[in-house]
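Researcher: Next entry in the queue.
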Amino acid sequence: MERESVVFDVEAVLDPRVQDSFGATVSGLKPDTEGDVIGREQWKAIHERRAAGTSVSALAREFDLDRKTVRACLRQSAWAPYRREKGVLTVLDAHRTWLVERAAQVNYSARILYQELRTQRGFAGSYETVKLAVRPLRAEACLAGLTQRRFETAPGEQAQVDWGQVSVRIGEQRTKVHIFVMTLGYSRRGYAEGFMHERMAELLAAHERAFAHFGGRCECLLYDRMRTVVLGTLTGADGQRRPRLNTTFAAFADHWGFTPRLCQPYRAQTKGKVESGVKYVKRNFVPGRSFVDLEDFNQQLMRWQAEIADLRIHGTTHQRPIDRFAQEAAALVPTAGQASFLQAMVRSRVVGEDWLVSIDANRYSVPFGLIGQTVEVVRVGGSWQIRHRGRLVAEHAVLAGRAQLSVCPEHGPGAAMRTARQRHAGPAASTRGGDGLRPASDDLAVEVRDLALYDHLFHTGVVHNRQEGA
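Model: Structure for this entry, 470 residues:
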């Protein structure tokens, strides 16, 4: 597998002066000797201040050191890094393996490690001891991050996914737009789209449009730990903790057949290709542009991708993404013939006392007689179809935003009363009410309740009254 190095001056990183800044001369796991390790610059400053006539006690106070440490420093004719004597045990030796493993998981926080050592492992040492022990571990991680090698993937093997946020002018005001970016690992060709939110519905819709844009999908998709993808961790039978995927997202991945992969904790740089893609959109597409609305934003973004992003010479591959995509396209798994997950997914809902069902944070009416019953909801194009026992009982246009209502008057208790009056009128009565509303069927007949209970639904500005045939 080809691997391409990230360009860094490694010798400069290993320069002793740089090591000093990383704390590379600090004792790794030392006895509880607060402040007894002196770096090169501090050693030099102590000697200069002593030569100027400063007393040992004053130096100890100034540099927050023990006087014995200052005297030992002054006895040294040249600075030398600390070297622990072999065979000397320390209070942290019993916890060495745990500390090295746990430090990376808490982002090298000495405070967290100290708290866990005290409460979980019976550690009796000081916070300073833990802090000194963590410094070289953190320095080693920083050095590893600087010298890491970029992992190159084969065509169709992996794509990376992320969100970015930009503030742009839409109409007369500044608006935050959330940009979804999917970048193919081999060709570096990307797909970007703007949304007003980063909720599950937007995430899944963006995936499906990205698949359509590329004409297929990769075997694996790489994510950071966004909550729409992963909810936390689970402990397996072997005691190992593993990520717990969001159940809806897991079903989505299974529907399309790809394998979700997660970045290591605190290592989002492993998702560097898409991180670069997000930055590229922010720096190259956004500046100097204004937009009429979100649709205009995405139309301009699509043109920019086709005319600029796909045709640029990529800084890492030194090729145009559209040219490398010609090699990658054949390796993608085709998706054109597969049904949309959003439209294929059947959702069960229990009808509330207000004869409404909740779908994606909005509420939609069903016939009054179905209160307490379970109905099935499926999306077909731009509409929600609601069925009870296989029979279509309601259909609503999908509402944008959240906390909105879509109520059909023929679903309410008033329609039930009209139906009852028609039933008492005998067989000669019309099968349709004078106002054109459909009567409720026998299995939906219920006790007629006081209409005042529901009057507020028809007198609020957020209700979308929809007449039959609208």
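Model: The first strand starts at residue 3 and ends at 5.
Researcher: Noted, moving on.
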